[in-house]
Amino acid sequence: MDPNCGKMPARVNPTGLVWIPKLECIHSQTNPDRRIPGAAVANRNIEVVVAGIRQLTPRIREYELRTEDGTPLPRYEPGAHIEVHTVSTESGPIIRHYSLIGGVELEVDHADTYRIAVQREDRRRGSAHIHDTFEVGTRLEVSWPKNNFPLDRREAKTLLIAGGIGITPIYAMLRSVVRRAKPFDLIYSGRSPESMAYLNEAKKLGKDRVLVHLSGDEGNSHLDFKAILSSQPDGTNAYACGPSAMIEAVYRAAKEVGWDQSRVRSELFSSAPSALDKPFDVELRRTGRTIHVGRDTTILDAITAANIPVLSDCRRGECGLCPLKVLESDGEVQHRDRYLDAEQKEVGKEICICVSRTTGSRLVLDA
């Protein structure tokens, strides 16, 4: 067993926020076959089939994933996501993380169904592979749901903020607060109405509590988050999901208006793969294993798929739980996290394995 299992270190990131992670230790499985149909054994992948596809915008498609025999899937709460595991003939194994929608408007998905929305990013990457190859009847594997962005049902009021494809977990939260008749506001920003998934559904659910901001209009200014937060009553908590600039603006405004930073929860969609990413090998010096990392897979996903226990939590490069010491690298370490400071990144002796990579072909880690 991992000697660190059960320890919950508090980490402070460069913004000064304290992150106390919910620790999930992954231990080696005696059975190398992690695939099971229907209701899963924890930490093993689940076999599902694409049961429905809906084009939401020119770049975003919704996929309904179901168990073939109707077996209920593991339950989850708003804010949860799953890993989608698939294989590209061009680039090998692909692992992508997608938020669970939960249903359409107030209709709840059946217990055997997961609903996700995938935005196509570029013609050669994982999302493009899903758009190009997934059709009704396609079989694939998904992980158990994971939730690093949970909605607190006890709040007096909920402020929901979405930017672009960041609407996916926020839409699930919107459905929850509307069903429970809880006070809320929704701020939804996108370049144009045609590019904004679930826009009509959100407006129908939220009615006059929905503010739509079109960032692609030349006459539109940036959202004034300081004014938005200042107008909220005491007891309001904010949930923001979208690009890094938007998330940072929300945190900056919260600090300026005197909000406790714990009142803002966020999920960041900023560590997307680069078109220049290449596969490489990671040698785990102490473990004595070498793991291949595909161009569409993170180091963390590749290591955990090999049943090697490592610590991780947020998978967004924010919490500071997954950094490992870099012993050797024949290329530049590409830091895509928000945890390490500028000096640490320049020295290059640590790497957040959930989002960062190397430009070389070999990376040696102290693990």
Automatic annotation (TrEMBL):
<dbReference type="InterPro" id="IPR039261">
    <property type="entry name" value="FNR_nucleotide-bd"/>
</dbReference>
<dbReference type="InterPro" id="IPR017927">
    <property type="entry name" value="FAD-bd_FR_type"/>
</dbReference>
<dbReference type="InterPro" id="IPR050415">
    <property type="entry name" value="MRET"/>
</dbReference>
<protein>
    <submittedName>
        <fullName>Vanillate O-demethylase ferredoxin subunit</fullName>
    </submittedName>
</protein>
<dbReference type="InterPro" id="IPR001041">
    <property type="entry name" value="2Fe-2S_ferredoxin-type"/>
</dbReference>
<dbReference type="InterPro" id="IPR001433">
    <property type="entry name" value="OxRdtase_FAD/NAD-bd"/>
</dbReference>
<dbReference type="GO" id="GO:0008168">
    <property type="term" value="F:methyltransferase activity"/>
</dbReference>
<feature type="domain" description="2Fe-2S ferredoxin-type">
    <location>
        <begin position="280"/>
        <end position="367"/>
    </location>
</feature>
<keyword id="KW-0001">2Fe-2S</keyword>
<dbReference type="Pfam" id="PF00175">
    <property type="entry name" value="NAD_binding_1"/>
</dbReference>
<keyword id="KW-0489">Methyltransferase</keyword>
<dbReference type="GO" id="GO:0032259">
    <property type="term" value="P:methylation"/>
</dbReference>
<dbReference type="InterPro" id="IPR036010">
    <property type="entry name" value="2Fe-2S_ferredoxin-like_sf"/>
</dbReference>
<dbReference type="Pfam" id="PF00111">
    <property type="entry name" value="Fer2"/>
</dbReference>
<feature type="domain" description="FAD-binding FR-type">
    <location>
        <begin position="43"/>
        <end position="152"/>
    </location>
</feature>
<dbReference type="GO" id="GO:0016491">
    <property type="term" value="F:oxidoreductase activity"/>
</dbReference>
<dbReference type="GO" id="GO:0046872">
    <property type="term" value="F:metal ion binding"/>
</dbReference>
<keyword id="KW-0808">Transferase</keyword>
<keyword id="KW-0560">Oxidoreductase</keyword>
<dbReference type="InterPro" id="IPR012675">
    <property type="entry name" value="Beta-grasp_dom_sf"/>
</dbReference>
<keyword id="KW-0285">Flavoprotein</keyword>
<keyword id="KW-0479">Metal-binding</keyword>
<keyword id="KW-0411">Iron-sulfur</keyword>
<keyword id="KW-0408">Iron</keyword>
<dbReference type="GO" id="GO:0051537">
    <property type="term" value="F:2 iron, 2 sulfur cluster binding"/>
</dbReference>
<dbReference type="InterPro" id="IPR017938">
    <property type="entry name" value="Riboflavin_synthase-like_b-brl"/>
</dbReference>
<dbReference type="InterPro" id="IPR006058">
    <property type="entry name" value="2Fe2S_fd_BS"/>
</dbReference>
